Amino acid sequence: MIEKNYQPADIESRMSRIWEESGAFMAGRPERKDAAPFTIVIPPPNVTGSLHMGHALNNTLQDILCRFERMRGRDVLWQPGTDHAGIATQMVVERQLMERQEPGRRDLGRAKFLERVWQWKAESGGTIVNQLKRLGASCDWSRERFTMDEGLSRAVVKVFVELHREGLIYKDKRLVNWDPKLLTAISDLEVQQVEVKGSLWYLRYPISGKTFSPDDPSTFVVVATTRPETMLGDTAVAIHPDNERIGHLIGQHVILPLVGRRIPIVGDDYADPEKGSGAVKITPAHDFNDFEVGKRHGLPQINVFDREGCLALVDNEDYLRGLPEGALMLAEELHNADRFAARKKIVARLEDFGFLEKIEPNTHMVPHGDRSNVVIEPYLTDQWYVDAKTMAQPAIAAVRSGATSFVPKNWEKTYFEWMENIQPWCISRQLWWGHQIPAWYGPDGKVFVAETEEEAVGNALGYYVEQEVITEEQGRAMAEDSAKREGFITRDEDVLDTWFSSGLWPFSTLGWPDDTAEVKRYYPTNVLVTGWDIIFFWVARMMMMGLHFMKDAPFSTVYIHRLVRDEKGAKMSKSKGNVIDPLGVIDDFGADALRFALARGAALNHDIKLSPQLVEINRNFATKLWNACRFAEMNGCDKPDGFEPTAAKETLNRWIAHETSRATREVTEAIEAYRFNDAANAMYRFVLNIYCDWYVELAKPLLMGEEGAAKAETRAMIAWARDEILKLLHPFMPFITEELWAVTAKRDGLLVLAEWPRKASAVSEEQIASMAMAGPGDPLIAPVMAALDAGDFSDPAAEAEIGWVVDLITAIRSLKSEMNIPPATLISLVLSAASAETKDRAGRWSDIVKRLARLSDISFADRPPEGAVQLLVRGEVVALPLKGVIDLSAEKTRLDKEIVKADADIKRVDAKLGNEKFVANAPEEIVEEEKEKREAAVARKAKLQEALERLKLAS
């Protein structure tokens, strides 16, 4: 029996337990061995993570697809797992050691520290998995993987070794995003651009061969920079070749201020003639654009910083090379100075010598580490790289050919733009937690890459014996005793970027590199659901790795969702204080309400605006469904065995069969097209408006009437439609639907494994029999075949009748609202020049229409009476005599005033949106909010004008 009150917390914990104990989510169920597989791999959340609203959206959408396809009979594998999250996890454990006043990472040593990380992972690393279960994620949890599982680690090593063997992994000295606090290279995804109010320094670089004078512009070139401390590493000044003002200086040299080094003036398109002075300083070791300019012109790369962002000038061979005699004093004075402290000293010194022309305020974006919050330094260092350009070509071709497609399709353009301009992928990180790079170095720095240490050592010792660096006897001794090769052959200390291992996720989780049955059955996967922000970092990596090693794209569809924002459209952030905690929302309103709110907002190419109030609305929807099912139970509504809804006799019951069939079609087609919001909103309208507000309400007289065929049929139809609702709603709101499915009747099995609603056939047995007897070309065949193909039950006559009742009552209620008439006020209704069909309907439904529309009477007339407001309902005029009910003149005055107010609102917004400065500078969410205000005002004005026109006709 259904409890009186809907309590989501009780239901959700119980249902989670039932699903898990029954193995409902397991792939490879015996009864589905011949079913088509459907595979999704979860974007593995960081093992350090906690559920945020982005996770909630992403996993809700995946779960909708998985539950939908599972109910359609597919063998569904939703592969779960977590990512080891190199930096994040290492930071968590280091912070823990510090808080407990225990020895730090360096004091512990690598082996002991990694033991502590694994210990932490075992104790608290699965938090987010339990939170995903609270959300209702129907993953096959028995197959949960971790990116540093033994099997996945083996896959990582194999991929690294094979790519290195093919020349697609190599070591190079290039610029990276360097975090001076964490002391490692980081990916672009881990860099946040922060707007900073800084300065733009204009510096005078003396032209070589001229006597420098601050008062004579012909003796120097002015360059502008936001980072004067990097000027110590300048190796050129660049000017655009077409710069008419100073282009003649190309080919000459300048003397680097304070340093005294002579550096060339080069011609390069990178220098914008319209920006600043038209000349730019080139520091190849400290700026990504300058690095490329330096490569084009063969410029030296002088790194003036150490790993901690301090100046490193003494003993810096690159810096000291080419210095004039007596120029060492500056190097000694600034050596080991922090970069920002050095900036102040350098600017002061430049000013002292007349090299500083001016300083301007300058607001600009500065890269910061998302975890360390320090300014990121472009840093020249030796790292391991993947030849991403070569590996990207098959990945580009797969999308161009349609083997993999993006939804929405416009994201393909973003994908192509990035893939076609892809840079070498830096895959090494200066951390301890992660997959250690399988590379060993000999005494001369020669690299030996292998899948195992034994293999690497064997290759290395064989090589050095052959080169006569060591004797055969020494080689044998080293091979047998690791202590004897200590310091001779050492392993690379770096670990791999976490995107490297997660790039293998679609096949490494299935057991590759072993030739497993799971790889054969579930690869390639069907769809990847992910956010737009990791198209480059994860989607692209998986495409490259999957095509290279599996010879097939890892998924056929990539569904890209947008961000979840607050109710005003602002991006959620802790600093703004507008973060909505999904777990708190689940505690307050239930997981189903949160899921349904997210699904209803998940429109293609649109961010989702969310507030606790919006979730509460969907909690109220769940309560309405609960109460409707309870009403059905209290009225003895049950579906007899063999009940066929399309055989119903009562018009009302045929109408709900018609509407249910339409809802089934709408929801099915919308999910298939990844239009989650359309599917969810179709269910919202169907359950709330069609089933609860109209069908159940219109069925009450039958339920309260005498026992008989009509009452029995209505009870059965209410139960049948309820069951179809529970099925259609299950992917969106799994907990409440599973509970109601269990308690509304005795059933064999769970709703999660029930069959998805099939479209009820619109073709009778008589039609099929007559078609079989028809000859070729008989006109009877075409419509019957069309109905069979569509598979929809349709009853236009029932829809016309009940639809008329619904539209009539709705129109009257809306009019009362427009005219400020209290809903309970009884008014008359006149059907003007009504057709015979309408008269018949009015007779059949008179009592219900009068009760629900609050009418005193219904009458007929050839024309609308004087002083009546006219409405058009399904092509026929209905009139409501309002003289004496309202003051028509006063109502017209009120509506005129409301229209003037709406006009003012529209003009006020138009003034803002017409202001280019406002549109350019206002936050995106503010601009969107103004557009929404305008749309609301325009809609309000249209309704007011419509009401005013009705009043004018009534006068």
UniProtKB/TrEMBL annotation:
Q: Which reaction does it catalyse?
A: tRNA(Val) + L-valine + ATP = L-valyl-tRNA(Val) + AMP + diphosphate
Q: Which residues form a coiled coil?
A: 927-954
- Which intervals hold domain Methionyl/Valyl/Leucyl/Isoleucyl-tRNA synthetase anticodon-binding? 653-828
> Main localization of the protein?
cytoplasm
Provide the alphabetized UniProt keywords: Aminoacyl-tRNA synthetase, ATP-binding, Coiled coil, Cytoplasm, Ligase, Nucleotide-binding, Protein biosynthesis
| Ranges spanned by the short sequence motif 'KMSKS' region, renumbered to the chain | 571-575
Might you report a single GO cellular component term? cytosol
Q: Which GO terms describe its molecular function?
A: aminoacyl-tRNA deacylase activity; ATP binding; valine-tRNA ligase activity
Q: Name one Pfam family in it.
A: Anticodon_1
Which residues does the record give as ATP binding sites? K574
Q: Give residue ranges for domain Valyl-tRNA synthetase tRNA-binding arm.
A: 887-952
Annotated motif 'HIGH' region, positions: 45-55
Gene Ontology biological process terms in this record: valyl-tRNA aminoacylation
EC code: 6.1.1.9
Subunit composition and interactions: Monomer.
**Record family assignment:** Belongs to the class-I aminoacyl-tRNA synthetase family. ValS type 1 subfamily.
Record remark on domains: The C-terminal coiled-coil domain is crucial for aminoacylation activity. ValRS has two distinct active sites: one for aminoacylation and one for editing. The misactivated threonine is translocated from the active site to the editing site.
Q: What is this protein called?
A: Valine--tRNA ligase
Give the originating organism.
Bradyrhizobium lablabi
The primary gene name is valS
